[in-house]
Amino acid sequence: MSTKSLAVAFGINMTFVAVTGLWGQDSSKVSPASSTSGDGAKIFAARCAVCHGADARGGEQAPPLAGNSDLQGKSIDWLRNIIHNGIPTGGMPAFNLSDQDLNAVAATVYSFNSRENAVPGDRAAGQQYFFGKGKCSSCHMVNGEGSPVAPDLSNVANELTVAKIRQALLQPNANMTAAYEPVTVRLRDGRTLQGFARSRSDFETVLQDSKGQFHLLQQSDIASMSQDEQSPMPPVNATPEELQNLMAYLSGLTGVKPGTAGTAERGMSFEVPSRAEAVSFSDILHPKPGDWLTYNGNLSANRYSELSGINTGNVKQLQLQFIYTVPLWKQLYPDTPYFRENLKYLGLETTPLVVDGIMYATGPQQAYALDARTGHQIWLYSRTRTPGLLGDASLGTNRGMAVLGDKVFMTTDNAHLIALNRITGKLVWEVVMPEKPMHYGSTVAPLAIKGMVIAGVSGGSWGMRGFLAAYNASDGKLMWRRWTVPDKGDPEAKTWGGDPPETGGGAATWTTGSYDPETDTLYWSTGNPYPDADGQDRPGDYLYANCVLAMDPDTGKLKWFYQETPHDLRDKDATAAMVLVDAVQQGQQRKLILQAGKNGFFYVLDRTNGHVLVAEPFVKRVTWASGIGSDGRPQLLAEHGMTCPWQAADWNSTAFDPTTHLYYIMALEKCRTIASSRKEPHPKEKVAMSPEEDSGQKYLEALDINDGKIVWKLPLRGPALGKRNAGILITAGGLLIYSDPSGNVVIADPRDGKPLWHFPTNGETKASPITYTVDGKQFIALAVGPNILAFALP
Fold first, then answer.
1. Which of 33, 292, 305, 347 has its CA 20 to 30 A from that of 643?
2. What is the dihedral of CA 765, 766, 767, 768, to 10 degrees?
3. DSSP state for residue 442 in the 8-state scheme
4. Mapping DSSP to helix (H, G, I), strand (E, B) and coil, where does residue 773 land?
5. Torsion angle of the four alpha carbons 432, 433, 436, 440, in this order, in degrees rounded to the nearest 10
6. Catalytic site residue 571?
């Protein structure tokens, strides 16, 4: 098999491999058992060994085929085609062999890197050695157990051949893992640090020490840095039997599987070494100044920050500090009307977290750890998009992560919840949230409280049964599930005209909730019912669609609910932010929920019982209801050919300023024509709309929470329609921070909305800003288009 370099040839064809892997690779047409290994070995010796070596470990003219990680996992059929067709650009000729001989030699090459024949040895004994006598777990993790100091080994059998696993154990200096090269750093302040250079550029280094802590170093901090030739891992000192058992254990580690969180490793009791400093629930309840530990910055969902380093006196000096770009795979989306429309304003919707100077952000099926000063990437986790999804999940939309302990958590497009170790970025556990297949997806940023991770699902406009679920943060075990659509025979089923639809009923839970530690109450909101355009054959209110739910966080049991839009036929989700504040209302101190709904009403609820205290429109024209009655139900109006408003407010974040006592929202003035019925898809009569009602107009509004009245209202120029839903942030520096539809990042005076500073990005903004500090320096960051931007003072 004459070739200059078969490895080069495989490298040349990696583009083809990546594409077939993305769109689905045909299964092998030939199995090892279907070929005669003896014949294959003879052909290999006669035709291939002259270049690749008699033992297939490489020769002068060609690279090794045994122990070649590029070949590991390739099918026999793939190898057969390479041998048959050759790779002329790589110097490898085609081989005109019979089908039987092609199959035989391909099977032989396949066997050099096959994992189908298990490495002999006692896996259980190898596991015991790994976590016990061998002390491997003092540095490495497997399925979330161990220490995150050195590379995670949960998927080592898919990453290394058996030969390379053996080499790593016996000769650790031979091939050190990328991003885990040991270095010694001498700082200008006289300190010396040792560890791994997890991320380096010409201007900064992220060093991970032996405790798993990150040190963010500017080049100006470093006096000298030297690469250590010796790996901190000593060669394994084991008996031949112990080594064989350890090899058997490691060669069977093929990654974390959904629903098997930690179970593969937890049949025994092992001493688990201490880990890097973890984020406790107490930390989340009382975050350190400068950290941003939850989707909204705090569990009340009020995006008000006490930071004041950037303020009205110096905001004009604000400068861009870094840009981090996330690939959004636009070129790989299907050419359909849905995707053509949504790609017009495709962009990140993530709200990053910041923990001790490390930023954690999400993209389409991706998670990132970044140096929060510079945006320099420390690690990346990614997985392929799931085919066949509908709605925002099919776009890879993801709004962010939660953090608790030594893990960060995110949902995937197909409604899995995953936990990643926040030091290594490797998968610790994964669970499938839905009980059965429907049009489920998930775009929500989870909420971490009381040792649990709580997440919801999307897809309510496509046909699914909504629910909210809580999982143990340590191992992913399901703690409880709260259905938002009743089952047949449930008392609430009568609100669906008898039984909920077999298509699921909708009521998705796709926005992040709030938590009140004083009353120990979890608040979550729900989306529209499904189908959501025709209710002629389905009378009733449709519980629990379009609701604010107050629940016991330990059980998911309802304490109370409030339904904003009963019998919704106009997609008026209740999924806007639910901000918890304590304030004087109607003459007494109260615990309140503030929410501006899609239906055009601003609600102030007593969060202890769900009673409506204020319900006032915040848009000019409301055609579907004349108001909200004393019983909390809307006073319905007959609509004729037009409904107003159309999505008056959406999921993007809002904020309450305790100094101005005002609540800040983004509002959309927009009406829409409606069908008369399912049989008559067009309005019976002509409708008259103003240009604002027809084309849409966005406003930044400040509302008085005492009476719901608009205190000031600022029109925002630029395209009003599409999923351009930028959020709001208020700081103690006297700053109101938002993005406008034209792509400007704007900082204004919260007293009157007057702009103080702006930065033109010319991008699509559909995310919400955050603020944080690193080493005492305050930053403001947000996602714009495919980028994460951060600003700070010089």
1. 347
2. 80
3. -
4. strand
5. -110
6. yes
> What is the rounded CA–CA span in Å between residue 646 and residue 89?
59
The letter for the amino acid at 640 is: H
pTM of the model: 0.85
Rounded CA separation 280/274 (Å): 15
Whether the Cβ atoms of residue 553 and residue 450 lie closer than 8 Å to each other: yes
* pLDDT at position 330 over 70: no
Q: In sequence order, what DSSP letters do the residues of 95-137 get, joined into one string?
A: ----HHHHHHHHHHHHHTS--SSPPSS-HHHHHHHHHTTT-GG
Q: DSSP letters along 314-346, please?
A: TGGG-EEEEEEE----GGGS--SHHHHHHGGG-
- Taking only the tens place, the pLDDT of each residue in 737-766 is 999 999 999 999 999 999 999 999 999 889
Buried b (16+ CB within 10 A) or exposed e, 154-180: bbbbebbbbbbbbebbeebeeebeebb
Q: Which two tokens mark 89?
A: 């650009």
Please tell me the distance from the alpha carbon of residue 376 to that of residue 212, in angstroms, as a whole number.
Answer: 18
Report in angstroms the alpha-carbon separations of 397 from 21, 350, 390, 491. Answer: 22, 8, 11, 35
Q: Tell whether the model's pLDDT for residue 163 goes beyond 90.
A: no
d(CA 400, CA 383) in angstroms, rounded, equals 16
Quote the tokens at residue 341.
Answer: 């429309």
Beta bridge partners of 562: 548
Q: Classify residue 289 as exposed, middle or buried by CB count within 10 Å of its CB (0-12, 13-18, 19+).
A: exposed
- Confidence at 89, pLDDT banded by 50, 70, 90: low
| Catalytic position from the list 77, 371, 475, 571 | 571
Other CB atoms within 10 Å distance of the CB of residue 613: 16
- Phi and psi at residue 189, to the nearest 5°: -85, 5
For residues 166 and 247, the answer to whether their CB atoms sit within 8 Å is yes
Write down the mean pLDDT value for the chain.
87
Asked if residues 170 and 235 have their Cβ atoms less than 8 Å apart, the reply is yes
Measured distance CA(612)–CA(190) in Å, rounded: 62
Give the amino acid at 535.
G
CA distance 191 to 213: 16
Tell me the pLDDT tens digit for each residue of 632-654: 999 999 887 889 999 999 999 99
Q: Are strands 777-784 and 304-305 parallel, antiparallel or unpaired?
A: unpaired
- Tokens 């799931």 belong to 386
For residue 162 the two structure tokens come to 């058996």
What residues are paired with 452 via a beta bridge? 449, 472
d(C-alpha 766, C-alpha 701), whole Å: 18
**Cβ within 8 Å of residue 149, ≥6 positions away:** 138, 139, 140, 208, 210, 211, 212, 423
Check whether 792 has a pLDDT greater than 80. Answer: yes
State the Cα–Cα distance between residues 616 and 606, nearest whole angstrom.
15
pLDDT for position 669: 94
Q: With the CA atoms of 385, 387, 392 and 395 taken in that order, what torsion angle do they form, in degrees rounded to the nearest 10?
A: 50
CB-based burial label for 480 (10 Å; 0-12, 13-18, 19+): middle
Instruction: Extract the tokens encoding 109.
Output: 């090459």
CA Rg, the chain, in Å? 29
Highest mean pLDDT among 383-392, 599-608, 675-684: 599-608
